[in-house]
Design brief:
mainly alpha; single chain; Arc Repressor Mutant, subunit A; 2 strands
């Protein structure tokens, strides 16, 4: 799965803001330069982020954008949803039944739907502060802990 460029750039820009003091506005031109993103593209994204309540603009000299609330309170999913619809892993259209003719679901429908749910849960568990500070999300730590717990067991089961 690949997030759209729109979503990736929005998260990159929001994390750039999260790495600053909350009330210190940052000009879009500076974000564009630091993240190597087109300024006109950022202008479009920040319009959506502002309407969704993720960022707010500060007018006047030294103005720019700041996060609308603390970085710890903004999930990556909030940013992604502000700029695009949630990603679907299935080819089924919403409310159209299954992905095959006659409204039937393909044999792998539940697999892809479950994967989409996991991706959504993961993005909802990671905050902008987690990313800006290089911290793993609670979800990622749990996955790593579970993997490490399985490692000794797998070695024992392999036996000599």
């Amino acid at each position: 799965m690949k997030l759209s460029t729109c979503a990736r750039y929005a998260v990159m820009a929001a994390v750039e803001l999260a790495g600053r003091e909350r009330e210190t506005p940052m000009a879009l031109a500076e974000i564009a330069r630091r993240q190597e993103i087109s300024l006109s593209y950022l202008e479009q994204l920040f319009g959506r982020l502002r309407r969704a309540g993720v960022v707010r603009s500060v007018r006047g000299p030294g103005g720019g954008y700041v996060l609308a609330r603390a970085a710890e309170g903004i999930a990556v999913a909030d940013v992604v949803h502000a700029v695009e619809a949630p990603a679907r892993m299935t080819r089924c259209e919403s409310g159209a039944g299954g992905c095959l003719s006659g409204g039937r679901s393909c044999d792998t429908h539940d697999l892809w739907a479950a994967l989409g749910d996991e991706v959504e849960r993961f993005l909802a568990s990671v905050t902008l502060a987690d990313v800006a500070q290089g911290r793993l999300s609670p979800c990622a730590r749990r996955v790593e802990r579970d993997r490490m717990a399985e490692a000794p067991r797998a070695v024992m089961l392999g036996g000599d």
